[in-house]
Write a structure and sequence with these properties.
By secondary structure, the protein is of the alpha+beta class. Helices cover 30% and strands 34% of the residues. An eight-stranded mixed sheet has the order 4-5-6-3-15-18-17-16. The protein starts with a helix and ends with a helix. Bound molecules: glutathione. It catalyses: (R)-S-lactoylglutathione = methylglyoxal + glutathione.
């Protein structure tokens, strides 16, 4: 008797809760709610987030037809977004422009310890590409340098931050950079507000490389840092549209910035991550014309484009094969205007062969 009575009381309580939330939805959907709770509970330092007020918002539309339509749209959205998480994705390479290919290759190979993986010249289009990295392209994140004939200078803008390279001895690399006449813009030492030993060096075009002291790692090319104007918006986008995971967040109130590491995989120390940095109060940056995009591997560029659209991103290149190469790609912009290109995994493997 007591059990039946208790179970009825629990049911009544549940119904009451459902009734209470009937006219509300969580402002940015379940995913965002999950993200929000993650942020609040997983933040490593004192962290307050301005988006919290948006959590409960009145629901738009209340007729049954509207509700059914909304439910159907939600199911489609959820299915594409869910698919993005299970897609076979990997950060492939980062593309940017340099003014002197030989000078840059010399700096990356002699000072940063990268290998020149391949070069291709496209005289019809008047440019040359060089691929460099710490291992083969089919398993490592690499750089794709573009040299446009006759262009020797680029504006890097204020939004691009740096590339992160994990090294076992920061001082040793800094000494090599100095010996080769390279620029060291920040001497080795603990990062402000933290313990990791870092240094900053600049390549011949002024692209910054953060050297981060770590033990041996399968992926020394560990970060691409981009500045964003709204961290919650950016993280939610990379989670939904790209199927990435939020691996770490760190707020640094003394230095007035918060960063979020997003990527594919579980262990930040073993993969390349996108480091999204929010500087308190800064919502706009310039992009210049040097940094271009990151490339991501996918099993389906068409579904990818659908997921990006559902997550509120902008498709700037409709999915489909490239002329001549036949590799299927699609390209999009994130909410801050950073471009990414998705490349079909099978087509890319054929290209690499
Ligand atoms: N205001 C900085 C925020 C990001 C930041 O400060 N990052 C750390 C590395 S995670 C840094 O550059 N620290 C400089 C230092 O410790 O000297 C920016 O936009 O670059």
């Amino acid at each position: 008797m007591v059990r039946i009575y208790l179970s009825i009381r629990i049911k009544i309580l549940l119904l009451f809760c459902l009734r209470l939330f009937k006219n509300y939805h969580f402002g940015l959907g379940l995913e965002s709610f999950k993200t929000w709770t993650y942020w609040v509970f997983a933040g490593t330092q004192s962290f307050s987030f301005p988006g919290v007020q948006r959590l409960l918002q009145p629901k738009a539309g209340s007729s049954n037809i509207e509700k059914a339509a909304a439910a159907q749209t939600m199911t489609i959205k959820d299915s594409v977004v869910e698919w993005a998480k299970s897609d076979n994705r990997r950060l492939l390479h980062v593309v940017y422009r340099v003014g002197d290919l030989d000078k840059t290759i010399k700096f990356y190979t002699e000072c940063l310890g990268m290998k020149l993986l391949r070069k291709r010249d496209i005289p019809e289009e008047k440019y040359t590409n060089a691929f460099l990295g710490y291992g083969p392209e089919d398993s490592h994140f690499v750089v794709e340098l573009t040299y446009n004939y006759g262009v020797d200078k680029y504006d890097i803008g204020t939004g691009f931050g740096h590339f992160g390279i994990a090294v076992e001895d920061v001082q040793k690399v800094v000494d090599i950079v100095k010996a080769k006449g390279g620029k060291v813009s920040r001497e080795p030492g603990p990062v402000k507000g933290g313990k990791s030993i870092i240094a900053f060096v600049e390549d011949p075009d002024g692209y910054k490389f953060e050297l981060i002291q770590r033990g041996p790692t399968p992926e020394p090319f560990c970060q691409v840092m981009l500045r964003v104007g709204d961290l919650e918006r950016a993280v939610t986008f990379y989670e939904k549209a790209f199927g990435m995971k939020l691996l770490r967040m760190r707020d640094n109130p003394e230095q007035k910035y918060t960063l979020a590491m997003v990527g594919y995989g579980e262990e930040e120390q073993k993969i390349t991550v996108l480091e999204l940095t929010y500087n308190y109060g800064v919502t706009e940056y310039t992009k210049g014309n040097g940094y271009a995009q990151i490339a991501v591997g996918t099993d389906d560029v068409y579904k990818t484009a659908a997921a990006v659209r559902e997550a509120g991103g902008t498709i700037v290149r409709e999915p489909g094969p490239l002329p001549i190469l036949n590799t299927k790609i699609t390209a999009c912009l994130d909410p801050d205007g950073w471009k990414s290109v998705f490349v079909d995994n099978v087509d890319l493997a054929k290209e690499l062969e």
